[in-house]
From TrEMBL:
GO terms for molecular function: ATP binding; ATP hydrolysis activity. Keywords: ATP-binding, Nucleotide-binding, Transport. The keyword Chloroplast does not apply. The keyword ATP-binding applies. Pfam families: ABC_tran. Residues 1-224 form the ABC transporter domain. InterPro entries: AAA+_ATPase, ABC_transporter-like_ATP-bd, ABC_transporter-like_CS, ABC_transporter_ATP-bind, P-loop_NTPase. Gene3D superfamilies: P-loop containing nucleotide triphosphate hydrolases (3.40.50.300). This is ABC transporter ATP-binding protein.
Amino acid sequence: MRFLNITKRYGDNQVFDHFNLEVPPSTILSVVGPSGEGKTTLLQMAAGLLSPDEGFIEKEEGEQGGISYLFQEPRLLPASTVYENVELALRSSYKERNEREERTLHYLDLVGLQESLPLYPHQLSGGMRQRVAIARAFAHQCNLMLLDEPFQSLDIKLKYALVHAFIRLWEENPKTTLFVTHDPKEAILLGDAVCCLGDPKQPLLYQKIHIPRKARNIGDASLLALEADLVETLVRS
Ligand SMILES: Nc1ncnc2c1ncn2[C@@H]1O[C@H](COP(=O)(O)OP(=O)(O)OP(=O)(O)O)[C@@H](O)[C@H]1O
């Protein structure tokens, strides 16, 4: 997916000014940036919910069609169980009940919820609800994933458990993904590249990460150096 020469204004507020950015197919681009610098605007344009004033968004053939969203709040169906919340997302793509059941159990297993199938959202902790939302995002037939701070407001242990659950599911079937976060560590653990917004004309920082996702350890020297660069860019912006 490419953002080509994008200009976007809200009244006098110019958020993007002939801005270019590329997310190679089947990769994750982590987007960080100070508040109000256009992260959500970028996601909304990628989703087609908002049009740029100038420029356009080019999507590869495999990126057209369904989009899976993952938000900070899980947005589950309150009257449906854990199992049903995920199974419902599979109905349009799997007509066979047995196949749907197998897929549902697979996704819920990968996020560690195999024991919680009959529970309703109000019976779950915040972290468990977000696990269901992650499983559902992967169950939904999609060609593009848009993540808007899905791991925010979780304690640090839970946050990394969910980041790893996300990676396990994503690696099974990689989709072009835009991942918005305020947390440089999350950005570095998940992204094939990280970029920092903060200048309407161009990213303040864009850095590819060559270490395979599964081999990343947040204590590695090169990742710590990148994190320091990101933090410095964010603080200076
Ligand atoms: N519908 C709107 N009408 C007017 N201004 C808007 C609208 N949506 C966003 N903006 C403005 O555009 C700028 C970018 O907003 P956006 O929500 O994209 O930023 P963000 O980086 O996602 O912020 P945050 O990190 O706080 O979520 C902000 O100055 C915001 O006030």
